[in-house]
Write a structure and sequence with these properties.
Elements (H helix, E strand, L loop, with lengths): L17 H9 L4 H7 L4 H12 L3 H25 L3 H12 L12 H20 L1
Helix pairs in contact: 1-4, 4-5
Amino acid sequence: MAQRKPKKMGRPKVKIDWEEFDKLCLIQCTLSEIADWFKCSESTIVRKCKTDKHLTFEGYYKKHSSGGRISLRRSQFKAATKGNPALLVWLGKQYLGQKDQQGDSAESPDGLARKMREAAKAMEEKEHG
């Protein structure tokens, strides 16, 4: 009599396509988004990184996501140097320590107008005083 193979119990094993996983890291997907992509739980992703790649999820993600940040930074610099004013301002703040003028400084339009009114008032008082 032929023996029957025992039925496997439990959920089917999740197969991770590591090339696809790397691409998801590159475009800065979150752990939750990566788990959704592979139709599994976040804990499965964390466990697979540990068992298949011998790294924590954080370690693996850091290693494979930096290329995406570099590519994004490169694109931002290109757009800024082509004259995108918003990016020029933002990059100046991020990398050059520049900041918006706050309040009523003499260099701001409001501050300059205030200074001009004060000077005009002082001159008027001097003429009539």
